[in-house]
Amino acid sequence: MVLIGGGSGIIIGGGTVGRGPYIGPREPAASSSAVYVVPGPVEGTTRKFGCNNDIDSGGTFEDIVEMGGTYAGMPDAFGAGQGDTLEVVSTDAADAAAGTGARTVQIYGLDEDGVEVDETITLNGVTAVDTTAATWARCWRAVVRSAGSGATAAGTISVVFKTKYSTPTCVSILTTAPGYNQTMIAAWTVPAGKVARIVAWGSAFANGSNGDSTVLLRARPDGEVWQVKEQAALKGGSTTWFHRPYPIPGEFAALTDIKITANSDTNNAVLAAWFDVVTEDA
What we know:
By secondary structure, this protein is mainly beta. It has two domains: 46-71 and 187-281, Sandwich (Jelly Rolls), CATH 2.60.120; 86-176, no CATH class. Helix content is 0%, strand content 47%. The protein is built from no helices and 20 strands. It has strands at 2-4, 10-14, 33-37, 44-55, 62-63, 86-90, 102-111, 116-122, 129-130, 136-147, 157-161, 172-176, 187-189, 194-205, 212-220, 227-235, 241-245, 251-252, 257-262, 269-281. The strands form five sheets. Strands 4, 14, 17, 18 and 20 form a five-stranded antiparallel beta sheet that branches. Strands 5, 13, 15, 16 and 19 form a five-stranded antiparallel beta sheet that branches. The chain is globular and about 50 Å long. Residues 1-36 have low confidence and may be disordered.
């Protein structure tokens, strides 16, 4: 997918249609291109992607995040006093400033006013390191930026709220597994002062599952509840992945939380999911 900036705000998507279903307004020819128009100038693009490595049967929907279950990175409303300090910690002492594993991690999110923030943390192994700011309200990505001779994280690196969820236990809002060096979180929040439009989303079985899954694109406008904005289905052995572009992308207001969830009718299903967003000033 190619983005063309400027006043036109046009997105052109094209290329070969691969194996599996193309879910859209109509089936394109393999060599065709489709034009998707976003009102106003394109100012920023974001791709969020994640994987849940163990969705079991029973009908319960889980978020497509590497920790499984319900994503804990969208805890409260925005506003003064809603932010918190984040702690970054590894399960391995080698993930430290002079260690052979990961040395620095950059984390991204929003503060309690919904403003985009990021900070680079120098790791200290199994000892947690606090962020400088105590006003984090969302954290939706962590990336290992430097490492020692191992060239990757030696342990699992977690990011947790220091105060929120501290009783009875801290809940990881992000984890970076060894070898990945980046989080796998299909969740994101529209920054303050912005409007977001999802131009495409999709999901896939990542382990050859023979089961069936329902996949939901969900959104929670600021101060409201979670709402289903789109539903799709995966069927093991046939529809094992989908990618749906939107010729007319829907609009999501500032501070809206967005995530992808799924269930399964078999145990141990592994699902990946993603969505592509363009943003502009509100």
